[in-house]
Fold these 3 entries.
Entry 1:
Amino acid sequence: MSLAVRVIPCLDVDNGRVVKGVNFVDLKDAGDPVTLAAAYDAQGADELVFLDITASSGDRATTYDVVSRTADQVFIPLTVGGGVRTVDDIDRLLRAGADKAGINTAAIARPEFLTEAANRFGSQCVVLSVDARRVQGDTQTPSGFEVTTHGGRVGTGIDAVAWAAEGASRGAGEILLNSMDADGTKDGFDTELIEQVRKVLNVPVIASGGAGRAQDFAPAVRAGADAVLAASVFHFGVLSIAEVKSELANSGLPVRR
């Protein structure tokens, strides 16, 4: 029996409120994270991802408070990312109630961070977030996908597929794969990106970016995703967790009801 496909709402949090935009700009308020998290737990979400999108510049104390209040309300795994730079940051998040820490920019700057985190907390607590975008005719990135930072605005020249594989080899227990081209567009997941990453990985892949309809999720799983993540379609009531799971089940994919 294959493992159930996980359906994961993502809360992009800015100064203690959930927000959503297209490609991380034109952000709209989508509500209180604690209230939304509790609603998703009740709806049957398998996990929650919580991204503090202004953590790099903002005040972390707000985040720990919101994480703590969210963890009190939900009984499903909670991954928190955004501004995680040291093992002490991870320690504080886990103590606040997170189950896993999402790491992005800090790992690009210093890949050894992934190994240090995995050695201290276990690989199951370490999620490498990869924000990938397509590049044309770039010999540096043979996969055709480049790792970006700053919400997709800054290119790194690092091949996204190779980086996902390196991250797993260094201790990341899971890859959160976000297509920056598809993010917020509601045109469907980038299956080509998912397929390429799946070929080089033996750890779970969470596909993110592009969900617009219930029918968008199954192709991402067939391309190799173990879990599917979405934000605005859930926050603004376009889709419910149950509708997505129903569509996955109707497509012959295992889900936890």
Entry 2:
Amino acid sequence: MNFPKHLEILILDIEMPEMGGIEVKNRLQRLKRDVIIIYVTSHDEMMREAFGLNVLGFVKKEYMQRDLPVMLISALEMVGNFVILRDDIDSREIAYIHTEQVYCRLFLIDGTEKVLRASLKELESKLADVGFIRAHRSYLVNLQYVEGIDDSMVCILKRKIPISVRKRFKVQRAYETFIGAKGL
């Protein structure tokens, strides 16, 4: 069996007609292919054998409609470098976040705002790996949308976001690294 070169996520049944899901996983591992595998199965007794390096998890067939979308979101986040904060909030759409006590106001790239009951520290933890950095004790910024930066301000969507004195070097370094990685 030949596998496409750009395969990133596979949904497999453990029991398939020509080649079972466990055999597919084993072949991919021998080929050293970095593919995320989600098993859909009714064979609990074979789960131990199905575990492997790139196996994200298992979805029982009887709960597939409920559990597969959740598992797919996790897999997509792993390959797509984004996070879904809530059903309707994709990290790629957030320009910056401002904390307001127990709530955070998310400023989206389309000019709209959403409010989320979460601490800035919690959001910082969730978003750190997808290009967000804390510029100030009350602001997280998405480096993808930074239009300019100086010693005391980050410009995003033509708005000025303050950079605290203690975070200046870290923010500037993160921005330089980000634009270097993007080849900008």
Entry 3:
Amino acid sequence: MIWKLIVSFIIGYVFGMFKTGPVLAKVRGIDLSQTGSGNTGMTNTMRALGKKVGIWAFVGDTLKIIIPAFVTYFLFAKCGHPYPTGEHVCLFIMVTSFGGILGDMFPFYNGFKGGKGVSSFSGMVLTLLFLTCDWKFTVVGLIVFFTTMFVTRYVSVGSLVLIVSIFIEFVVWGQMDMIYSLKNPEDRIYIYIIVFIIMVLVFIRHRENLKRLANGTENKIGQKKEDK
């Protein structure tokens, strides 16, 4: 199974390197890397090209996780089992998503300088919904993100709290055997480690946001300033 997981990771990484925002900007004659903060994610795309284009950038960045997860699911995880069951389904989803998120954050063709991984992380959560019918992560994630963002008016805080909550949900629900596609005890440990690493990397990618939050200069929703 190891080689299948390695191939799944590589497939995820290749898809993850696709950057939706810069493509949408280039069609409009704009170099996103030279606009605003230079970030290639949804926030900078939205500020440079408008909300509608920013939403499409988010959709593209979630699909680049969802699509390869479907590919590896039908290639390796399903293994002839009826939907949505199959051997190690959750592990294949998470390994593929992990590769995709790393591809988004660290694309080799751009000197390993990429996005912050939040939209891609959302794609991972949606993949669990689509491939395993496990709605808990999506519903709780939406509640946590929008409630935090509404209260604080910081997108960055909402994103970070979301990712911490998903990690906690994986551990708690995993230990309570409440994740539909995660029944193998060994798989649980690997998945906890994967989600923890993703959480740490997202915090590292948001270090400038954290500094601005600490000194009170982080932009709130509605402020047309430098992208976070």
